[in-house]
Protein: FAD-binding PCMH-type domain-containing protein
Organism: Phaseolus vulgaris
Amino acid sequence: MKYLSSYFTYVTVIALFFSFQPSSADSHENFVRCLYNYPHITNTISNVVYTQTNSSYSSLLDHTIENHRFSNSSSKPLVIVTPLDVSQIQATIICSQRHGLQIRTRSGGHDYEGLSYVAGVPFVLLDLSNLRQIAVDEENRTAWVQSGATLGELYYRISQKSKTLGFPAGVCATVGIGGHFSGGGYGLMMRKYGIAADNVIDAHIIDVNGNLLDRQAMGEDLFWAIRGGGGASFGVIVAWKVNLVPVPSTVTVFDVSRTLEENATEIIQKWQVVANKLDERIMIRVDIARVNSRQHGKVTIKARFVSLFLGGVEELIPLMQNSLPELGLDRKDCKETSWIGSAVFFNAVLIGTSGNEPPEVMLNRTQLHLWKYKGKSDYVTQPIPVEGLQGLWRLLYEAKVENAQLQFAPYGGRMYEISESEIPFSHRSQYIFHIHYWVTWQEEGDGIAQRHMNFIRREYKYMEPYVSNSPRAAYINYRDLDIGVNNNGYTSYTQASIWGLKYFNNNFKRLAKVKTKVDPKNFFRNEQSIPILSMEEY
Ligand SMILES: Cc1cc2nc3c(=O)[nH]c(=O)nc-3n(C[C@H](O)[C@H](O)[C@H](O)COP(=O)(O)OP(=O)(O)OC[C@H]3O[C@@H](n4cnc5c(N)ncnc54)[C@H](O)[C@@H]3O)c2cc1C
Ligand SMILES: *[C@@H]1O[C@H](CO)[C@@H](O)[C@H](O)[C@H]1NC(C)=O
Ligand SMILES: *[C@@H]1O[C@H](CO)[C@@H](O)[C@H](O)[C@H]1NC(C)=O
Ligand SMILES: *[C@@H]1O[C@H](CO)[C@@H](O)[C@H](O)[C@H]1NC(C)=O
Ligand SMILES: *[C@@H]1O[C@H](CO)[C@@H](O)[C@H](O)[C@H]1NC(C)=O
Ligand SMILES: *[C@@H]1O[C@H](CO)[C@@H](O)[C@H](O)[C@H]1NC(C)=O
């Protein structure tokens, strides 16, 4: 825990040094000068500041852009700062305010709408990818993890210390801790242990005044808000302390496909009724896409049943026989592995590799795909009737897009035990499963992008009768600007509620209260940041 104690030696005295008069010649030169003159900077600041003329600027900007829909954006940061410690973040926050620049904070760069590195205003990119220390305390079953680390790195470091500890977060190894924990973070242990944010027990945030605060110093309201209220509204989170969870030394995974000809529709109908009621040690996700079936030589719909069971195959087979015999799960479909082996497996399902790679692949931050994409989300309160599914299949058949997929993730178990207001992530016992829509493409061109966007919007429209309404709930980590955006600058609470209630339901008001208290001038803002309340609204 060495790096933690060193944090507290750098607590700021900036307020004494800088006065906050607005300066006239606001420019990035002044911002950079301000950084260079900032007191108590520990590492050499000139090593971490990149202006647009720097030869490394472009590669640094691009290195964690995950959605290549935004890799040619004309809205680029004036300056990129890649802090090595807290003092450099504090300086960036203070100097950007002083010189009229906004900040976009980027951890893993997986934001669906590119909000961590694109802004239609002059801004500084605070790229946290150098802050990626992970300290696992296996004795106390906790870990401190810095925001710039990836999920893959966290899983790998845990597995190096213990074969019987894990952490319940997402499946994609390159997702950043900073954005993921801020927005919730679910994976295949969600039914047993909830989401990542449910398991956060402390954090270090730097607020708008440049103060470094731990849980005790920030207070329970702000600590509540950062666990699911979305990144970027309250400050810059440097590190998180989490509870690790027990996992058996042997777990079982499977990835079984069924086409329509193999009764996919019937299996999904049954799945909708049982998946949220199963033993909480099992989670069966369904990935749905149109494929060219080799077997039948024609286009069909394929459902992949992707599953983690926290136990051995001997126990799994009878459990599946009893609950979902329609799937016809066979022992040879199953693979027993370690928990880290399961993480490698699920990441491989996502990126299309074999799944037999060594655990070290979890450390690889290089993207395999340069895909462009658009995603959306929904929550389901009642099983979708068979006509509804069949209409969806027709839509997928007709789609003039190559890669469109849906993912159904069942709730139940631990998700039903946690109250809707425990943390800002409010999607709990109201829902039987979560839908993720995704459409990806690689080709260049506005026409191609538009065709894909049109398709996913049509699909979303089609699904309206079958999903939650008032509000039609959505998941902030699958950020979707179609559901509403803030005005540039001041946005009223009422206007922001259009998207805010979808993400947070009854927690949105409390998030706005916390925001009003901790960042009353709305410095930390973007297209979907939490709004400030006016006197009347408070
Ligand atoms: C391929 C892929 C697979 C995914 N799989 C899953 C999954 O299995 N489960 C799941 O729940 N989600 C999943 N996601 C969604 C993912 O959780 C979100 O995109 C998440 O916000 C990404 O975090 P990041 O740090 O990589 O993103 P970034 O783009 O760096 O940040 C996202 C947002 O958080 C803000 N932010 C980032 N870091 C900080 C910080 N330190 N302090 C304050 N604000 C910050 C950013 O400004 C931005 O607004 C997936 C995404 C992709 C692209
Ligand atoms: C680019 O920026 C880095 C970090 O500040 C610095 O070390 C390097 O000298 C700069 N290179 C050029 C060519 O300006
Ligand atoms: C950016 O645009 C250029 C020119 O249109 C194109 O060649 C390049 O492939 C694009 N980059 C990405 C990552 O899409
Ligand atoms: C576990 O926690 C206790 C109490 O906080 C602490 O004294 C001990 O050092 C911790 N163990 C490790 C390995 O850090
Ligand atoms: C599909 O279901 C029918 C009726 O339940 C059954 O007879 C048939 O064997 C199933 N087909 C497959 C490929 O499992
Ligand atoms: C990391 O992944 C990329 C993309 O999949 C691959 O090209 C590269 O070889 C990998 N690097 C290592 C060290 O495995």
DSSP finds 17 helices and 18 strands in the chain. Residues 1-25 have pLDDT under 50 and may be disordered.
